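hey so i finally got around to running the thing on that chain from the lab meeting. sorry it took forever, my laptop kept dying and i had to restart like 3 times. anyway pasting the input first so we r on the same page abt which one it is
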Amino acid sequence: MKFSHSFILAASSALTSAAAMASVAATVTPETSFSTSTPESLITDASQAADLEKRNPAAPKTTTTPEPPKPWLRTKTLAETTIIEVVTPTVWEGVTFSASPRTDIKTPDPWFSLDKGGKIKTIQPKIKNGITQNGRPDYGTWFEDSYTTTVNLKTIIEGVTEDTFHEEIKYLPEDTTDRDLNPIIRCTPNRYFNKKRKLDKVSSEPFCTPREAANLILDDVYWVSWYTKHYPNADKVRLHLAYIEKNKYGGIGKRDNILEKRDSEDAFWSSEWMTNLDGVYPLRIVEDFFIGSSPVHDVMLTLQPDTIADEDFNLINGTYLKLYRQPIKHKKPKTLSTDEGENSNSALYVVLTIPTLMVVVFIGYAIFNFIVRDSRTWKKMKLRTKRRIWSNPKYQQLPSNSYEMDSYEIR
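ok and heres what got predicted. didnt touch it at all, straight out
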């Protein structure tokens, strides 16, 4: 009995400690952390679920990634109170999120820009003459909440006797506490691009990267970025990839002519549900995206919010991309072998020799004519008519009296 009583006390103590640790762990998860769990599938048909699972890619290839920094404490000031929370950094495809800001250095932390395809580019800010160069982008009011205020000018301005109302739009400053923990540039409407269409321009909203018709290579990672306020009421979103076919003229033309109404069940790949406020997702191109031995596929990338059901979501409203199994090789000039090189050089010598000989012969002929110019048997024809005209003497005035007549001589 004593042994049993001791065992019960020990077990209860262990359970109490575990509960306390669980409560602490529940409070240290940062708001900016990214979910890694796979949500329950929204597909209810067992055959469709099995087919999607078969087509979905396996786990990405394991790569060597740096260990995330250790958790750190952060103080947040709310409207009426101040709280302290533990923030746990996360490494996602080589990029560290929720890292502790450095305060003991002279230059700001680096941040990451994205090229047209969604590839990471590291930007290191510099401070010169007290001015920060290559600093983080200024997002203006893109992520601020707007509200309208109405003021009666009669109550605030002297001399206004009648009721005159003035409306003004103001913005609530965004809480940058969590925003600054994301080192990747955020997507804003001014960074949208126009999709390639022959007759009209279509905005890429809500995507900023990858650009339309970007080439995505197998085993590479491309960051998909979207404007989080495009779906203001969505808490969760997920990405889809679906195959498309080109029309007979070689372009994708109007999307309605390519794809009929297709919902998320027609996608060959879907991401897990993730927080809309994340705004970025690393898309790794894996072998399972390709059918058979086909080296290239045309696909459509779409973003589904949790406010739109699967059967109401349309896969044609997305960004057109190209998947390549191997990097695109640019054609290089053909390297000639030794024999081919000798033959080519011989032909080049012949081509250069003939014009050279012609020039030498022409110069020799000109020199010969110059030497024998005085020994010719023919002479230059004299232009007598022109010579007569050119050699006519000046006009001789006729005599006006007898004296001039006696001295006048007819020439």
